[in-house]
Specification:
The complex is a heterodimer of chains A (206) and B (734). In chain A, 56% of the residues lie in helices and 1% in strands. With 734 residues, chain B is α/β, with parallel strands linked by helices. Chain B has four domains: 50 residues, Single Sheet (N-terminal domain of TfIIb), CATH 2.20.25.90; 235 residues, Rossmann fold (3-Layer(aba) Sandwich); 189 residues, 3-Layer(aba) Sandwich (Dimethylsulfoxide Reductase, domain 2), CATH 3.40.228; 126 residues, Barwin-like endoglucanases (Beta Barrel), CATH 2.40.40.20. In chain B, helix 8 runs antiparallel to helix 11 and helix 8 packs parallel to helix 14. The chains are: A mainly alpha (206), B alpha/beta (734). Chains A and B meet through helix 1, helix 2, helix 4, helix 5 and strand 1 of A and strand 1, helix 1, strand 4, helix 2 and strand 6 of B. Strand 1 of chain A pairs antiparallel with strand 1 of chain B, so a sheet runs across the interface.
C-alpha cells in the first residue's frame, strides 16, 4: 500500500477523471461549468508534479443537452464514429489458441482477454459492478475505480502490475478521440489521465 | 463551490470483502490459467438469415470461442455458411444498442432505464388507445418470431394490426399456394433427375444442406440443373445451363412451357384427370401462348423452351420447377400469375408427392400452451386493409402490407407503432417515404443494432439481446428442402447478455405491466416450450442439450392426400385448383393469363433495376458485420452489374462510377460491365446502401434498390413489386 501524500491525492485524481467517462448528470455538469472541478483537478495534479498545460480552462463546454450528446457520440457512439473508452476495443481480442472465431486475432471488439481479467479481479477482490457494465468490465471508468481500490487496499507491486497491464492502450484511445474530432475537453482530460498514470508509475517505482 | 457527488460504480459485494487466495493480479498469469478453463458446448439457431441453421457454440470463460454446425439439423447438416460465421463473432461488435434509448432530438437520443422506458411507453400507449382506439396501434415485424407475444399484446388492447415484411419477399407465393394447394411442397433436390430454377438463386440465398443436396444430385448422379435468370447468378455458375431471360417475363416463359406440355401431350394425364380442378379454364385462357409467342417476349428461343419442357416431361416425376422464395414472388406486377404457373407446371408434370419431384415437409404436431388469454375484444378492420373488404381483399391478413404503413401514419390512421426485428427504412421501398413513420405519436423500435428505422423514426429504442443471448420457443426445421423425418430445434441462451438488453418476452412483460396486462405474460419461455414438446415425448433438457431432435418414427408418406379414395387437399375441390375462386369474386382472373411487367425501359440509357442476394449477406441485416463486409471489399462486390455491350454504347467500363437515377432518387455507384447479365437490366446486390451513421461498417457503402423504388402495392397479394422500376444510367460527369 502506498503510504505517502500521494495515497490521498491519487485516488481523488483518478476518481475525478473517472467521472468524465460516465454518462453526465446535472450535478457533474454544474460542477464542470463552475470551474471548480477542473481547478481542483489541476491543483491535485500539480501536487504530484504533473503538468496541467493541456487542462487549460475549457471555453468550449457546450450546454448540458449538447454536452450529453457529445458524450453519447464519443463514448457510446451514436450518429458518428466513436471512441469507446473500453480496453478490449484497442487490443487483440484473445491470445487463447482454442478460440477459433474470426475475430480472435482482431482489434475492435468487446469482451476481450482484458475484460476477462478485470472480471476476475473484481470478483476476486469481492467487488461488484452495476448491471450495465457487467459485460463491459474493462470500461475506463471501472478501470479507474479499480485502480483507486488497488491504491487504497493492495500492495505496491500489485498496483504497478495493474497499471502496466491495463493502461497501455490510452494513447491509442486518445488518437481515436482526435480522429473523430471529439470534444476537446475529452481529449485533454485523456491526455491528463495519461500523464497521471505515467507519474503514478514513477511514484511507485521510487 | 458546486459540489459534485461522485457516482462510484464499484461496490463491495454483499457476501465478501476479502481478496480470494487464487486471485491473479498479473494479466499474463491470469491468461495462462484462463487458457485451461473448461469449455462448454451449447446450442443455438443461427440468425444470419431466416433458415435458422443449428449451431453448437463452445463457451469458455463465459465467451464464445468456436461454433460448428449441428450435424443433425436439416438446414445445415454440420456446416456453417459465411453469414453464420460472421454472425457468431458479431456478438462482440460494439455497434449495438447497449441500453434503452429515448429520442431527445432529430437524431439525438439519451440512455434511460428500462423502468422509465416502460413507464413512459405505457402511459403514451394508454393515452393513444383512449383517444384514437386500439385500431390505431400496429405491430410491425419481419415475421413471425414475435407473433406469439405480439398476439397476446394485440388481443389485450383489441387491435387486429399485425404486419410482417413478407410483401417484400414472397407474399405472391404463399398467397397462391394457400389458395391452389392449401399446403406447401418443396423440391426433392437430392433425388431429382432434372431441376429447373427460375429466378431463384439457391446458391445466393444459401441453405448449406440445400446446396449439398443439389450438388449431390448433379455431381454424383448426373442430374441436370438448368437456371433461368437475367443474371448468371451463383447457382447458374454450377448449372448445366444458364438461360438469360428478359427480366419480368418469366410468366410468359412458364405459359409456353405449359403450352408444350399440353400440346405435345407430355402432361401427366392421370394426375391432371384425378387431382386437378379447372384445367380447361386454364387451357382455354392460354392456348395461344406458344413458344414462338414467348420468344418475342422473353428473349428465350422457342426451341429452347420446347427443349426444357420436353426434358422436364422426360424426367418427370423426378423433375421439378423449383417452387421459389424471395425473387419472382414479390418483384413484378405479374408475380401472382407466375406463382400460379409454378403450381400448374409442377401439377402437369405429375411430380407432386413424388420422390425426386415435390414433397411435403415432414412435420410434427406441437402441443398447445394453455396460458391465461385476455378476454375477447371486438376488433375493427385491419388498418392496412389486408384481407378486408375493399381493394386488398385477397391479400393474406397474416402477412399484411408493410409498405402502406408510412401512408397510414400520414393519414392519421396509425398512431402507435411497435417495430420488432425489422428495418423498413432500409428494406422497404423509398426510404424518404418510409421516414414518415416518425410522425406517429409513438414509435417503439426493438432492434439489435442502430438500424436506420431506429435512428430516424423511433421515439424509444428497446434493444433486444443478441440471438446467442436469448432463448426462444422450439421450431420445426422444415421448409425449402425436403427430409423424410420431422425435426424440432431450439435456440437457447448460450452466453449472458453483453449489454443492458432484454429478450423480447421480458420487453413485453415490462410494457404489459404498465398497461395492466401483466397477468397475461406470467410465463417463461421454458413454460411454453415444455407445453409445445410435451406430446412429442421429449424433455426440455434433452432438447436444449441436443439442440435439434429428429423423429425417425414419423416419416413422410409421399402420396397425394386422399380421403375415402377422393382427393383431400384442403381446397374447395380437394384437388389442385388451377383457378382461384377468391380471385374471381374480387374481380381478378381465376387462372393465370399473360400480364406484362408494369414498366419497361425505353431509352438507350434506361434499364430495369433488379437485385439479388450474395452468398455472404442476407439483404441488409448482415451489412454492418465487419467480417462479411471484408469479403464484399475483397471482391469489389458492391458494384452494380451492367451488360457489357450496352455499357460500351454508353462509354462505361468496369470500375467507372456512374449516376443511377429513377423518378425518386439519384445515386452514384461503381459498375462491373459483364456479358453475364441480360442487356435490359442493371443488377445490384441487396445488402448495401446503409445510411445509419451509427452502423459504421455499413454506412455509405454501395447503393440499395429500395432507394429507387416507389412504394406500390400489387393488387392480389400485396407485394412491393420490387423490380418494377426503371433507372437511367450515365457515366459520372456526363
Amino acid at each position: 500500500m502506498l503510504l505517502t501524500i500521494q495515497n490521498e491525492v491519487l485516488p481523488e485524481i483518478f476518481l475525478t477523471i473517472a467521472e468524465f467517462y460516465k454518462y453526465p448528470d446535472q450535478k457533474f455538469y454544474d460542477a464542470l461549468i463552475s470551474d471548480e472541478l477542473l481547478d481542483e483537478l489541476r491543483e491535485r495534479m500539480e501536487k504530484i508534479e504533473v503538468k496541467t498545460d493541456c487542462l487549460t480552462q475549457q471555453a468550449d463546454i457546450p450546454d448540458f443537452h449538447q454536452f450529453k450528446q457529445e458524450y453519447l457520440r464519443c463514448f457510446i457512439g451514436m450518429d458518428q464514429p466513436s471512441a469507446l473508452p473500453v480496453e478490449s476495443i484497442y487490443k487483440v481480442w484473445t491470445t487463447d489458441e482454442q478460440a477459433q472465431i474470426n475475430i480472435a486475432n482482431e482489434k475492435g471488439y468487446l469482451m476481450g482477454d482484458s475484460a476477462l481479467h478485470i472480471k476476475h479481479l473484481i470478483e476476486g477482490l469481492g467487488l461488484e459492478i452495476p448491471e450495465e457494465y457487467k459485460q463491459m468490465p474493462d470500461h475506463l471508468t471501472i478501470l479507474l475505480e479499480l485502480l483507486v481500490y488497488t491504491i487504497e487496499h493492495c500492495q505496491t507491486d500489485e498496483v504497478k502490475q495493474f497499471l502496466d497491464d491495463h493502461f497501455d492502450w490510452l494513447t491509442d484511445f486518445k488518437e481515436r478521440l482526435i480522429e473523430i474530432e471529439a470534444l476537446p475537453l475529452f481529449i485533454s482530460i485523456t491526455e491528463s489521465l495519461i500523464s497521471c498514470i505515467e507519474q503514478t508509475k514513477l511514484i511507485i517505482k521510487s | 463551490m458546486v459540489k459534485m457527488t461522485r457516482r462510484n460504480f464499484l461496490k463491495t459485494a454483499a457476501a465478501t470483502g476479502v481478496a480470494s487466495t487464487s486471485l491473479k493480479f498479473s494479466f499474463n498469469e491470469y491468461s495462462k490459467a484462463a487458457a485451461n478453463a473448461e469449455v462448454e458446448k451449447r446450442h443455438t439457431l443461427c440468425n444470419g438469415c431466416s433458415n435458422m441453421c443449428g449451431l453448437f457454440v463452445y463457451v469458455k470463460n463465459g465467451r464464445v470461442v468456436k461454433a460448428e454446425g449441428n450435424p443433425i439439423h436439416l438446414k445445415n447438416k454440420g456446416k456453417i455458411c459465411a453469414r453464420g460465421h460472421g454472425m457468431v463473432a458479431d456478438i462482440y461488435n460494439p455497434d449495438r444498442v447497449t441500453r434503452p434509448m429515448k429520442r431527445v432530438g432529430e437524431q439525438e437520443f439519451e440512455p434511460i432505464s428500462w423502468e422509465q422506458a416502460f413507464s413512459e411507453i405505457g402511459e403514451k400507449l394508454t393515452g393513444i388507445i383512449d383517444e384514437h382506439s386500439a385500431n390505431s396501434v400496429t405491430w410491425l415485424e419481419h415475421g413471425v418470431r414475435g407473433k406469439n407475444y405480439a398476439d397476446i399484446f394485440l388481443d389485450y388492447i383489441g387491435s387486429p394490426n399485425y404486419i410482417t415484411h413478407y410483401a417484400t419477399c414472397f407474399s405472391s407465393k404463399t398467397n397462391v399456394w394457400s389458395r391452389m394447394m392449401a399446403t406447401n411442397l418443396f423440391g426433392d433436390h437430392e433425388n431429382s433427375d432434372y431441376m429447373l430454377f427460375v429466378g431463384r438463386n439457391f446458391a445466393g440465398g444459401i441453405i448449406p444442406n440445400g446446396m449439398r443436396k443439389v450438388l449431390k444430385a448433379t455431381r454424383e448422379r448426373g442430374a441436370k440443373l438448368v437456371v433461368v435468370d437475367p443474371r448468371c447468378c451463383e447457382l447458374a455458375k454450377v448449372a448445366d445451363e444458364w438461360i438469360p431471360i428478359k427480366p419480368g417475363t418469366d410468366l410468359a416463359f412458364f405459359l409456353a412451357i405449359a403450352h408444350v406440355l399440353v400440346t405435345e401431350d407430355l402432361k401427366d394425364r392421370k394426375f391432371t384427370r384425378e387431382y386437378v380442378e379447372n384445367f380447361e379454364e386454364f387451357w382455354n385462357a392460354n392456348r395461344n401462348c406458344t413458344p414462338e409467342w414467348a420468344e418475342e417476349i422473353t428473349d428465350v428461343p422457342a426451341d429452347k423452351i420446347r427443349e426444357i419442357a420436353r426434358d422436364l416431361a422426360k424426367h418427370a416425376p423426378k423433375a421439378f420447377l423449383e417452387t421459389g422464395y424471395h425473387g419472382l414472388n414479390a418483384h413484378y406486377q405479374n408475380s401472382v400469375q407466375q406463382a400460379q404457373m409454378n403450381v400448374i407446371i409442377n401439377a402437369l408434370l405429375g411430380n407432386m408427392y413424388q420422390r425426386g419431384g415435390l414433397l411435403p415437409s415432414a412435420s410434427v404436431e406441437f402441443g398447445q400452451f394453455e396460458t391465461k388469454r385476455p378476454p375477447e375484444k371486438e376488433k375493427g378492420p385491419r388498418v392496412d386493409g389486408a384481407g378486408e373488404e375493399g381493394p386488398y381483399a385477397t391479400v393474406e391478413a397474416v402477412r399484411g402490407i408493410p409498405q402502406r404503413v408510412p401512408q397510414l401514419v400520414e393519414e392519421g390512421k396509425i398512431k402507435a407503432l411497435f417495430i420488432y426485428h425489422y428495418n423498413p427504412l432500409r428494406t422497404c421501398p423509398d426510404p424518404e417515404y418510409q421516414k414518415k413513420i416518425k410522425d406517429a405519436d409513438l414509435v417503439v423500435s426493438m432492434p439489435i443494432d442502430w438500424n436506420e428505422t431506429s435512428l430516424y423514426t423511433a421515439d424509444y429504442i428497446l434493444p433486444e439481446c443478441y440471438f446467442m443471448e436469448r432463448a426462444e420457443l422450439p421450431v420445426q426445421t422444415s421448409g425449402h428442402i425436403t427430409h423424410d423425418y420431422p425435426q424440432i430445434a431450439m435456440r437457447t441462451e448460450v452466453v449472458e447478455p453483453m449489454e443492458d438488453t432484454k429478450p423480447l418476452l421480458d420487453i413485453m412483460k415490462g410494457i404489459a405491466k404498465e398497461i395492466g396486462a401483466e397477468e397475461y405474460f406470467d410465463f417463461t419461455v421454458d413454460d411454453w416450450a415444455k407445453a409445445m414438446i410435451e406430446p412429442l415425448g421429449v424433455t426440455l433438457e434433452h432438447l436444449k442439450e441436443a439442440g435439434c431432435i429428429e423423429f425417425r418414427n414419423q416419416g413422410i408418406d409421399p402420396k397425394f392426400p386422399l380421403e375415402g379414395g377422393e382427393p383431400a387437399l384442403n381446397t374447395p375441390s380437394g384437388k389442385v385448383e388451377f383457378s382461384v375462386g377468391l380471385y374471381k369474386v374480387n374481380g381478378f382472373s381465376g387462372v393465370p393469363r399473360w400480364i406484362p411487367p408494369k414498366v419497361e425501359p425505353k431509352r438507350q440509357d434506361e434499364f430495369r433495376l433488379i437485385h439479388g442476394k450474395q452468398p455472404w449477406h442476407s439483404h441488409h441485416i448482415t451489412s454492418n458485420n465487419p467480417y462479411l463486409m471484408a469479403i464484399s471489399e475483397q471482391y469489389d462486390a458492391t458494384r452494380m452489374w451492367i451488360n457489357k455491350e450496352r455499357a460500351d454504347k454508353l462509354g462505361i467500363k468496369t470500375g467507372d462510377t456512374v449516376t443511377v437515377e429513377s423518378e425518386i432518387a439519384k445515386k452514384e455507384v461503381e459498375v462491373k460491365a459483364t456479358e453475364l447479365l441480360h442487356p435490359d437490366c442493371v443488377w445490384v446486390p441487396s445488402a448495401y446502401g446503409g445510411f445509419s451513421k451509427k452502423a459504421e461498417t455499413a454506412y455509405g457503402v454501395g447503393i440499395n434498390w429500395n432507394d429507387f423504388l416507389p412504394a406500390m402495392v400489387e393488387p392480389i397479394a400485396g407485394s412491393t413489386m420490387g423490380q418494377e422500376v426503371i433507372v437511367r444510367v450515365r457515366k459520372e460527369g456526363k
